[in-house]
Amino acid sequence: MEKENVNYQQLLEEYRSIWNNRLLTAKDQTSEETLIQAIKRELLDENSHPRIRKDKYEKFYSAVKRVTASQISNESKVKFIEMHIEMMEEIS
User: Fold this and answer.
1) pTM for this prediction
2) Tens-digit pLDDT profile for the chain (92 aa)?
3) HSE-CB of 69 using CA atoms within 13 angstroms
4) Which residues contact 34 (CB under 8 A, 6 or more apart)?
5) Potential cystine with 31: which of 9, 41, 54, 68 (Cβ 3.0-4.6 Å)?
């Protein structure tokens, strides 16, 4: 993904709108770092109670499905899916 063409602040705002207006604190982090951390937490299902957590593949499928069904631009959808793929490769 071409980082120089990505507006991470805008993507972070769109992420918040897709994932139920999640408050993502960005203390001492850039928008990019906050977004990457949020995607990683989502894929690892760290926002759920340990007894009901799903595996990363189920979470990936759910995330892609949610992104594609959202009202954001197609360009943002592609960027989100690319970021999810990159994070899946990193945590696998």
Assistant:
1) 0.85
2) 444 578 998 998 899 889 875 667 667 889 899 899 999 999 998 888 889 999 999 999 999 999 999 999 999 999 999 999 999 999 98
3) 8
4) 12, 24, 25, 26
5) 9
